[in-house]
Amino acid sequence: MAEKKSILVVGGGISGISVAVEAAEVGYEVYLVEKSPYLGGRVAQLNKYFPKMCPPYCGLEINFKRIRPNTDIKVMTMSEVQKVEGGPGNFSVTIGTAPRLVNENCTGCNKCAEACPAERVNDFNYGMDKTKAAYLPHPMSFPMRYVIDKSACTGDCGQACKAACKYDAVELDMKPAATQLNVGSIVYATGWKPYDMGKLDILGKGQIKNVISNVMMERLASPSGPTGGKILRPSDGREVKNVAFVQCAGSRDENHLSQCSTICCMASIKQAFYVREQYPEDSKAEIFYIDLRTPGRYEKFLNKAQADPNITFTKGKVAKVVEDAETGDVTVEIEDVFGGGKKRVTVEMLVLATGMEPQLAGAPGSVAVLTEEGFAMSDLQKPGIYAAGVAKAPVDVATSIQDATGTALKAIQAIVRS
Ligand SMILES: Cc1cc2nc3c(=O)[nH]c(=O)nc-3n(C[C@H](O)[C@H](O)[C@H](O)COP(=O)(O)OP(=O)(O)OC[C@H]3O[C@@H](n4cnc5c(N)ncnc54)[C@H](O)[C@@H]3O)c2cc1C
Fold this sequence. Notes:
Elements: E1 6-10, H1 14-24, E2 29-33, H2 56-67, E3 73-76, E4 79-87, E5 90-97, H3 111-115, E6 119-121, E7 130-132, E8 134-135, E9 147-148, H4 158-164, E10 177-183, E11 185-188, E12 192-194, E13 211-213, H5 214-221, E14 242-249, H6 264-278, E15 284-289, H7 299-306, E16 311-315, E17 318-323, E18 330-335, E19 342-347, E20 349-354, E21 356-358, E22 385-387, H8 397-417
Parallel strand pairs: 1-2, 1-11, 2-3, 11-22, 13-20, 14-15, 14-20, 15-16
Antiparallel strand pairs: 4-5, 5-10, 6-7, 8-9, 12-21, 17-18, 18-19
Helix pairs in contact: 1-2, 1-8, 5-6
The structure holds flavin-adenine dinucleotide.
């Protein structure tokens, strides 16, 4: 066994978490470095996840239970890699950590937020509501510790939350920190971000209030979302019973994301079920698609939707989206491939199935060559440095976990071989 036994995992989504627990449970020390204040990545922001349709915290909590007692896993949130030097068995890495302004004494009691007079846009809910400047990222946050967003603080209002904290957890003068690590191998599990709706000219450029993205729909349907789980439309807070979905919104398009994100058809079908379950009597969902992709066992999920007469599928490319300024309704114009001619459909809300855009490019020290879409081309380009999950390809949670488990083995082998 080589001398160095540590593995650095960059990205604390389901893929990074899986690499960390698998490697740590066979005796390797793991540094799990996550740039946001909590673990769980995009999965934490889902309402339910297919195929089982359970809340994301079923799956995440099982992993948090494995992390909590395992002293070999060092979780570093609000942290990013700044520099990587060296090679397999002996990488020297610098990690920068932003100040959370709340230390480990925090019990999650919420008193700081109650006392806080300032607000910030809630990025967890994709900007659809606000939190206090002293906030818990979300109700199931791991670690269950508040954060203070200094950029949202006004004057010396920080004194109010400091005074409200009985546990001396608020540390307004906390400074950015740099940590030097020596690790034997590195795994990048940096996942994805939603493709920017603002770039989609014919689909409203992100300017039409009742045209939202699929990730926003997850938050609208979630009990911890901005509407407490009631699907209400952004313009006027009305119940939404007539919804359409546009597939491949910016995906499979050379001008945007050239790849198929593989999960968007499943995500829209899932979200059509959210609407049908909330308003079973009189809701309707229409899905506009170019090709429906529900491979393997996911075909049953599609079959279930096709069996519901209130969920319809129309094959064709959307040509135009227009807002009715008076009602806030949205009209979609589509070339109907099977029906022939142009079809115009007016709905209360339109959901764009925007794809998964990788965020590996620019991560210091990461795998050398990326595909033209920005995913890790091959995980053997730089010895000892690997990619896992959506950093490698746009895939679902189950595939991410499988890939992460295999990648943990590669990271271990790099250490053993060195
Ligand atoms: C609308 C929608 C619905 C979906 N629904 C489902 C579903 O129901 N079922 C299903 O199986 N799949 C679903 N998916 C797919 C699922 O979200 C992905 O499979 C999953 O997020 C992959 O996890 P990951 O850890 O690879 O990436 P992520 O979830 O993106 O996690 C990556 C993590 O890395 C962190 N990070 C990024 N860059 C850095 C950096 N430089 N330094 C430190 N940290 C960094 C991020 O903050 C994040 O926490 C859905 C996707 C979409 C778009």
